[in-house]
Amino acid sequence: MRDTYVGSIDQGTTGTRFIAFDHAGRVVASAYEKHEQIYPEPGWVEHDPIEIWENTKAVITRGLDDAGIDADQLAALGITNQRETTVVWDRETGRPVHNALVWQDRRTTDRVEELTEAGKAEEIRAKTGLEVDAYFSATKTEWLLDNAEPLKMRSARGDDLRERAEAGELLMGTIDTWLVYNLTGNHVTDVTNAARTMLFDIHDIAWNDDLLAEFDVPAAMLPEVRPSSDEELYGHTDPDGFLGAEVPVAAALGDQQAALFGQTCFDEGDAKNTYGTGSFYLMNTGSEAVESDHGLLTTIGFQLSGEPVQYALEGSIFITGAAIEWLEDVDLINNAAQTAELARSVDSTDGVYLVPAFTGLGAPHWDGRARGTIVGMTRGTRKEHIVRATLESIAYQTRDVAEAMEADSGITTTSLRVDGGAVKNDFLCQLQADILGLDIARPEVDETTALGSAYAAGLAVGYWDTLDELRDNWEVDRAFAREMSGAVADERYGRWGEAVERSLDWAGEE
């Protein structure tokens, strides 16, 4: 009998990866493809959904081929995705009406401010657990229906997108929904992605009629909401399609919830931080939706078939890894690996602070009009100081969130599980331990986002039977303990708050 595996489609902000895992949670196949970042105007960020789908097919095919694995050896497929990024497409043709609006996109900031000024923020937050922000899908969907160019393929109802949406001719979804639709023909999302739309009541676990009315989003265009790990399955791939096999599609989680699951944070109080384009700090709060008084989001962590949802508190930091990419863009570094060497070459930033608010600030500040700032420079400032300040900004932003998390949950965190591309940087991991005063645990398998969706898919089809099996797979690659004195860490962190103040509302006059 041939070996079987579980495949994960990890569709991220900058590219799409396919990974297949074995029973021990080890990587047996992998392929990756970048996609274009489209910036039509300052603060606008788009992706081409067709390019993402074509890349998804390409990485699955290449990953399996390179590993010598046949598609029928896949026991299941899971999906994890960049959250909030929104697609509207034609049900009949499958063609998008416009590029996807990416989670980083700020074009609906005016609409968000209008909602806040109208006193609607608290009501929305009570239902959704979210701050009113352009980050989420509701205002993106509203913008697409109001502003997207009508499809070239006309319908009998004419060009009006809202009419077509009301008639069920147009569908919307986050990227998981777009991929499930293309893989299976079914219009499905999971609870974690639905919870990021600002249209979903996380207490009733249902789309909310008042929110749909507020954003004028027709219910007919919304996907069916299912558990993250679904024994009833989202569907199967087409045996006559690109895979040539009927593979169950059994799970989906937004990328940060998938990382929580992949880090086996199954119990109340377990916490992880993922360092990607942005950073996302999540703590499992169990069956209780803990409301935040400190600028965090209350969200859904995951849901297994037949079980209640598990909630989480989340601190969303918009720019961390993207700040390192910016260093590369402006030729201060040649590649990300160089940051550790340059940062170590100086003892400190020499008083320089960089606030990477390139697309505003997320938790706990929530200022869509904040902008990137460098303060404290002198004639003696060198690129090494700026590079170190960039790495320190990642640690400081994480402490902002960690302190808010502790205040909201009442739980004192002693250890933080970390993952994502940036944690390969030992200097950053040590810096994070120093600034937070926590033990940092980096796992053996650092592709925890993909692993989380694979675990969820595998549980749905019986590839793994229990959560304990998954816990047994988790192994520490390296742990980092604080080496900097608490007084020094507190002093440096204190001035960070002053730097943040200077970045706030910078784009307010635009």
Automatic annotation (TrEMBL):
Binding, ADP: 13, 17, 277, 321, 421, 425
Top-level taxon: Archaea
Domain (Carbohydrate kinase FGGY C-terminal): residue spans on this chain: 272-460
Biological-process GO terms, alphabetical: glycerol catabolic process; glycerol-3-phosphate metabolic process
Cited Gene3D superfamilies: 3.30.420.40
Top class in the EC scheme: transferase
CDD domains: ASKHA_NBD_FGGY_GK (cd07769)
Residues that hold glycerol according to the record: 83-84, 135, 255-256
Residues annotated to bind ATP: 13-14, 277, 321, 421
Residues of the Carbohydrate kinase FGGY N-terminal domain: 5-262
Coiled coil: none
EC nos: 2.7.1.30
Entry keyword annotation includes Transferase: yes
Record-level GO cellular component terms: cytosol
MF term (GO), any: ATP binding
Protein's pathway: Polyol metabolism; glycerol degradation via glycerol kinase pathway; sn-glycerol 3-phosphate from glycerol: step 1/1
Keywords recorded for this protein, A-Z: ATP-binding, Glycerol metabolism, Kinase, Nucleotide-binding, Transferase
Protein name per the record: Glycerol kinase
Organism whose genome encodes this protein: Halobellus ruber
